[in-house]
Specification:
The chain is of the alpha+beta class and about 300 residues long. Helix content is about 30%, strand content about 30%. The chain is built from nine helices and 15 strands. Strands 7, 8, 9, 10, 11, 12, 13 and 14 form an eight-stranded antiparallel sheet that branches. Strands 2-1-3-5-4 form a five-stranded mixed sheet, covered by helices on one side. Helix 2 packs parallel to helix 4 and helix 5 packs across helix 8. The longest helix has 22 residues. The protein is elongated and about 65 Å long.
Length: about 300
């Protein structure tokens, strides 16, 4: 594997001259990387950003997991961004941003901000998936895939808490809950509207996820907004919904993110959903970890053999 990356999950190291960091360029960096992580009850930044000058960028820093390298000065004749992987360590994300002036560098950063954030998110996610597959709790995938035709892969520590013919609950409940639901329902007209996804979510949770007391159950908070995005990952299309869950008639709650997509034969909608309950802790990293597990979804092999014949 070579050298393993250093740095905590969610950290980004900027290699940038002090004058640029203290000026407009540094401000642009902070605007892009330190925006609020979506859907947490308390404000937490998306990334923890640190910086070092080119002169100080020695071997110790070169193995950092996420690096943005600013090449700014009159000697630079091209303006642009290059995305590289595993330059000094693995799995590493290195983004090189070049421009002749700080103002041009700031403009480029603002213009490509979403792409930069997506690239770092993807790298963070791929690290979780890589570790998941390396330290997998092997019994769970086949059980879930047998019922749903596919399943995420789960890292060590997860247990299959409940599975019926249309709902599975895979739990990792230590001091913090990082749990996953997989459920399904028949396809209807326009299945991917926010209203329909939330209505089915609430119905599935009311039936399957009781709270601690009589008459309490998990549901979607109406106090916080929910958002919907269409995404594609490794040739799989899905609809992502983010929001906050709460327990009806009780004081529990936290963030959730769900992926909704068609079953392989197109007759059903499948939902894989991650949620966190961490009342005393910062939630950014817990959510990022459990959300990454959703991206490891894989269709069962049995179905692939049938389609090939």
């Amino acid at each position: 594997d070579g050298i393993t990356v250093s740095g905590k999950a969610g950290e980004v190291l900027c290699v940038i001259e002090k004058a640029d960091w203290d000026g407009a360029l540094g401000e642009a960096v902070r605007d892009v990387l330190e925006d609020e992580y979506p859907f947490l009850p308390v404000v937490e930044y998306r990334y923890t950003v640190t910086h070092v000058t080119h002169g100080g960028f020695g071997d110790m820093f070169k193995v950092h997991r996420n690096i943005i390298l600013f090449q700014v000065g009159p000697q630079i004749d091209t303006t642009g961004i290059i995305f590289k992987h595993d330059v000094w360590a693995a799995p590493q994300c290195v983004i090189q941003l070049s421009a002749p002036t700080s103002a041009q560098a700031s403009g480029l950063l603002k213009e490509k901000g979403t792409m930069i954030v997506c690239s770092i998110e993807q790298a963070e996610r791929d690290r979780v998936i890589r570790n998941t597959l390396r330290y997998e709790e092997h019994g769970i995938y086949p059980e879930v895939a047998k019922v749903f035709g596919g399943s995420p892969h789960f890292p060590t520590g997860y247990k299959l808490r409940k599975i019926t013919d249309d709902f599975a609950w895979i739990a990792n409940d230590k001091q913090v809950y990082q749990d996953i639901f997989v459920y399904r329902y028949p396809v209807e007209k326009d299945p991917f509207t926010l209203e329909k996804i939330i209505a089915h979510r609430n119905a599935a949770l009311k039936e399957n996820v009781p709270g601690m007391f009589d008459g309490t159950y998990m549901t979607t908070s109406e106090f916080f907004p929910t958002t919907l995005e269409y995404l594609k990952y490794r040739s799989r299309d899905f609809v992502q919904v983010r929001g906050m869950w709460e327990v009806q008639n009780d004081f529990m709650g936290g963030p959730f993110v769900s992926h909704s997509f068609y079953s392989q034969d197109g007759s059903e909608i499948l939902v894989a959903e991650a949620w966190v309950y961490a009342p005393k802790f910062d939630k950014r990293q817990y959510l990022r970890q459990v959300e990454s597990v959703l991206y490891s979804w894989e269709w069962g092999k049995k179905d692939e053999e049938n389609t090939e014949n």
